[in-house]
Amino acid sequence: MKILIAGGSGFIGRIVTNLLREEGHDITILTRKEKEAEKNITYIQWLGKDTSPETEIKKADAVINLAGVSINAGRWTAKHQKQIYESRMIATEELLRIVAALPEKPAVFINASAIGIYPSSQQAVYTEKSVEVSDDFLGRTVNDWEQKAAKVSVHGIRPVFMRFGVVLGNEDGALPLMAMPYKWFVGGRVGSGKQWVSWVHVKDAARAILFAITNHHLNGPVNVTAPDPKQMEEFGRTIGFVLHRPHWFPAPSMIMKLALGKKSSLVLEGQQVVPEVLMREGFEFEFPTLKTALNDLLARKSGS
Fold first, then answer.
1. pTM score > 0.90 for this model?
2. Is the CATH number 3.40.190.170 carried by domain 2-302?
3. Domain coordinates of the chain in residue numbers?
4. Of the candidates 282, 213, 292, 198, the residue with the CA atom closest to the CA atom of residue 16
5. What is the pLDDT of residues 144-176, one digit of tens each?
């Protein structure tokens, strides 16, 4: 296939790009900077003055939208929240314009999303059928993002909203920060420890995107989380177990709020999310349990 990617150089985008290249697909990555082509990868500039990517894109069987300022980078000041929100709206609006200009439309539009659309809860279990939307910054951002991306359906294109959980990887995302205290022998309970962490290995996140492209039954929201959500207390203990480190030094909610500000909600609040659609359609997780995921990411890296 010929696949167009926005955000191909990001955390998930790099893994997706490598996976698609291994599968033999031709990839076009939209980028702000001029780059030389690689094997099976073409770079086209966009979101700049006088750029017209649609004139260089000959064909796209699928579009993957992963573009947007990372929610993990920096403190959630009003300015940063505005950047997080607007970067997603602007990039998606431009992709909609590009798709509308293509004479031959792609079959599917894969749009990144997040389980932050669901309200925080220690009791609720959320599936793709859940209609509750969190009335906070993340909930409103994700909801608006999905609604904008859904506009591709007017062209007969199948929209899929990949609601990523906490994506675990070595190079980026939440795991390096979560594991760091344990490596320094000061890991322990974060907040109450009862908040849910619905996670997914970055390789499975990338594989789920390819699965959504090739599985024509998928439409609308898809929860991209492993079928093994954990409460923070157990999540931390598992990190300690894999790294052979103690789990004993608590980080109270007040300390986390002082250190992280509004972004503390990412670790102090959570949702129990089940990947009902992926399981129903037969997706097989390479890392279905937290222990298998952390053993791959942490034990292998630390040499233990």
1. yes
2. no
3. 2-302
4. 213
5. 999 999 999 999 999 999 999 999 998 888 899
